[in-house]
Structures are given as structure tokens and as C-alpha cells.
Design goal:
The chain is of the alpha+beta class. Helix content is 38%, strand content 20%. Strands 5-6-1-7-8 form a 5-stranded mixed beta sheet. Strands 9-12-10-11 form a 4-stranded antiparallel beta sheet, covered by helices on one side. The protein has a 3-stranded mixed beta sheet with strand order 3-2-4.
């Protein structure tokens, strides 16, 4: 049996960890640049606050109901996520971190699954103060549906165990196909063309017949819906095949110097992710564009072939700045830029070229030292001067909470 442990309204719950006065009250978290609502507490959902709506369109509604508003604070969310995952590791020797707020646990051989699941919930709440829901089933796809039921059905009290076929049949008969993991609206429309409307219709269909009309992935989904596991636990996350770092500016940039500062920062962030998974990059994409909602929309991108596979921030930043200088057009107000690292290769198996020197040992050592400094003293402690210092273009975060667990200067204090 597999358990999916999912944090409830994770970003909003993180903001409530160090603000217990907000528990039981509506809370929303905004996306980068305070663009739109990306997380809502249970109380905010009950007020009808829509998800993924532009903040400026619903700000009056949030103010009217005294909703607590926060900008995204990803360093805090990442640290609390690590605490949740570390706590869950004591409940199973085999597990998979699926996302920042979800983890699969292998509970094979565990007796009293209902009691064990409630123990998981209570332990995470006691250690981290983040509420979680637990869904248990024989396959990953059914565990996702069980977790959904644990959140939605009040009588489940945060735990749903689908350990018998009649239990998941009861649930599947009440769900549309779009509730199934991996079935989006477009696929749902294609399934309707062959008279498959509900999750139970899909589970009851002939997997071989459906495969002929779609793909092997849907065949696996049907098998999983019938309690036959086809998706194994991925205990080690696979390396990313592409790495992108893109951001909208806090305010439009009209000069090249500002855009180059931003692109230098994005190239640096992408290089850090590249080194963390021990890969090198040979090809890079750089793009910029203006607001698509304003006249004279302008957008352009450039593919850059690097002289050799590298993870050196200095080389990536230099080529990214040169590329964006070629893309820049005076007279436009640029709103967004980004860097993508393509054609990644594993650094451990890299074959050197006899005719090209490649990245030097000194560059490797320098990157190691910079990464160590930034891990110890905080991101951005050691950086290239080309990123600028004041960063007036940096994304808006007017409602950011303190870095309670990630910045020494913002650690909570207690008055005795």
C-alpha cells in the first residue's frame, strides 16, 4: 500500500506557522511580483476568493473580508517543506518526495493503516505545525484520489484508506475524469468522444482498446485505477532536462543596463541549479518581452552556443548579457526576461575534447567556494557585480513575511 501525504493549503499554512493568530482566519498568498493568488486557506476558499485571479482585480474583495495577504516567501516554504519531509521519513524506509508539499510513502506490511495515518498527521502537526491529509491505496493514482477525498469529505477527518475494490469504486463513480491524475481537460474531451465521462467509466474500460485510441500512459492509468500499481516510487528524483529561470520585473525596464542586470541574476540562479544537479550546459536560450497587454508588443529570443560544456556562472552571465544586448530594442518598456539552459549533460560522465581546453579546474574550485559561501551565509552573499546592488527592477513583494527560519536577523524573539 502507498500513502500520499499532502500538506493542506501549504503556502498559506506556512504563513500561519509563525502567526498562530491567523489560524482559523482567511489567508492568501500571491505569486511572484504579487501578480495573482496562488494559495488560499480553507477560510479564504469559504469566502469565495477565486484561485489564480489577478490580485489587482480582487484586492477590494480581500480588503472587504480582512483577508491576510502575503507575497510568496519561497525560502521559508522550502525550509518548512524540508522539516515536513524529514518528519515523514520516520514512518517508512521507502519514500518519494513528489513536490514541495507532497510525499509518497511505501506502507507495505503496515498493520492498522487508519491508526497509522492519524499518527502521521498528529506527528507532523506536533513537530512542524502544518496540517496534512493522508490518502492510502494500492497504487499512486488511487492514492492521489484518496488524498483528495481525505481533504474534501468531512467524515474522513483528513484520512482516507482505499484498501478494498468496493471503496475505490464508490469514489470513482462520483468523480469526473479530470479528477484523475494526469487527465486534463483536453484529454477529458477526447474521452467523452468514446463515451467515457466519469473516473469509473475510465476504470471500467478496456485498457488495450483505450491505448489504441490514446497512449500507453492512459493504459497505465486504467490499470492503476483498478488497484494494479504501474508507477514505481522514485526514491531519487530524476535530473532536470532543462533549467529555466524567468521573472517579471517589478517595474518596466527601458534601458539596456537594467535588463542586463536582471539577466545576469537569472543566469546566476540557473547556474546554481545546474551545479546542484551536477550537470554541464552547452546551449542557452535568452529571451525578453514587453507587456502583451499593451500596444507594440515586442518579444524576441536567441539561442547561444557556448564554447564548451560548462557550469561556470561567469561564462553563462557573459554570454547571456551579450545575447540580451543583441535583443534589446530602444523605445520599448520590457516587462520580463529569462534564461534557459538546454542540452544538459551529466558532469560525471563528460567526455573532454582533445582540441578544446574546456572548463578549468580553477573555475570548478571557484564555483564550489561561491556555492559554499552562499549556502552558509545566505543566497547572494557572494555574487557578480554585473547583477547590480540596488536592483530597482526586482519583482514586487510588498507583503513578504520575515524569513523566520532562513535569516538570522529575522529569527522570532520571545519577550520574557
Amino acid at each position: 500500500m502507498l500513502a500520499l501525504v499532502d500538506c493542506n493549503s501549504f503556502y498559506a499554512s506556512c504563513e500561519q506557522v509563525f502567526r498562530p493568530d491567523l489560524r482559523g482566519k482567511p489567508v492568501v498568498v500571491l505569486s511572484n511580483n504579487d501578480g495573482c493568488v496562488v494559495a488560499r486557506s480553507k477560510e479564504a476558499k469559504a469566502l469565495g476568493i477565486p484561485d489564480l485571479h489577478a490580485f489587482f482585480k480582487i484586492e477590494h474583495l480581500l480588503r472587504k473580508h480582512n483577508v491576510a495577504i502575503f507575497s510568496s516567501n519561497y525560502p521559508l516554504y522550502g525550509d518548512i517543506s524540508n522539516q515536513v519531509m524529514t518528519t515523514l521519513q520516520q514512518f517508512s524506509p521507502r519514500l518519494e518526495v513528489y513536490s514541495i508539499d507532497e510525499m509518497f510513502l511505501d506502507l507495505a506490511g503496515m498493520p492498522e493503516l487508519m491508526t497509522y495515518s492519524h499518527q502521521i498527521r498528529q506527528t507532523v502537526w506536533q513537530h512542524v505545525r502544518v496540517p496534512v491529509s493522508v490518502g492510502i491505496a494500492p497504487s499512486k493514482t488511487l492514492a492521489k484520489l484518496a488524498n483528495r477525498a481525505a481533504k474534501v469529505l468531512a467524515k474522513c477527518n483528513g484520512v482516507c484508506v482505499l484498501d478494498q475494490p468496493q471503496k475505490w469504486e464508490w469514489l470513482l463513480r462520483r468523480l469526473p475524469t479530470t479528477a484523475v491524475w494526469g487527465i486534463a481537460k483536453r484529454m477529458a474531451r477526447r474521452l467523452e468522444e468514446i463515451n467515457i465521462y466519469s473516473a469509473w467509466d475510465l476504470a471500467s474500460s478496456n485498457p488495450k482498446w483505450v491505448r489504441q485510441r490514446s497512449s500507453v500512459c492512459l493504459e497505465r492509468t486504467i490499470e492503476e485505477l483498478n488497484g494494479h500499481p504501474c508507477l514505481e516510487l522514485e526514491e531519487l528524483p530524476p535530473a532536470k532536462k532543462q533549467i529555466y529561470c524567468t521573472r517579471s520585473f517589478g517595474k518596466s525596464a527601458t534601458d539596456l543596463h537594467t535588463v542586463q542586470e536582471a539577466i545576469a541574476l537569472y543566469a546566476t540562479r540557473a547556474a546554481e541549479k545546474l551545479r546542484s544537479q551536477r550537470h554541464l550546459v552547452q546551449t542557452m536560450q535568452v529571451f525578453i518581452h514587453t507587456s502583451p497587454h499593451k500596444p507594440d508588443f515586442y518579444s524576441d529570443s536567441r539561442i547561444v552556443q557556448l564554447p564548451f560544456p560548462t557550469d561556470d556562472t561567469r561564462l553563462l552571465v557573459r554570454h547571456a548579457r551579450q545575447a540580451v544586448a543583441q535583443l534589446f530594442q530602444p523605445g520599448h518598456a520590457f516587462l520580463k526576461a529569462g534564461v534557459g539552459l538546454l542540452q544538459l549533460t551529466d558532469k560525471r560522465y563528460h567526455q573532454f575534447d582533445m582540441l578544446t581546453a574546456g572548463q578549468s579546474y580553477r573555475a570548478d574550485r571557484l564555483m564550489e567556494v561561491i556555492d559554499r559561501i552562499n549556502r552558509t551565509h545566505g543566497k547572494g552573499t557572494a555574487q557578480l557585480a554585473s547583477q547590480g546592488t540596488s536592483k530597482p527592477w526586482y519583482m514586487r513583494q510588498q507583503f513578504t513575511s520575515p524569513g523566520y527560519t532562513t535569516r538570522w536577523t529575522e529569527v522570532p524573539t520571545i519577550k520574557m
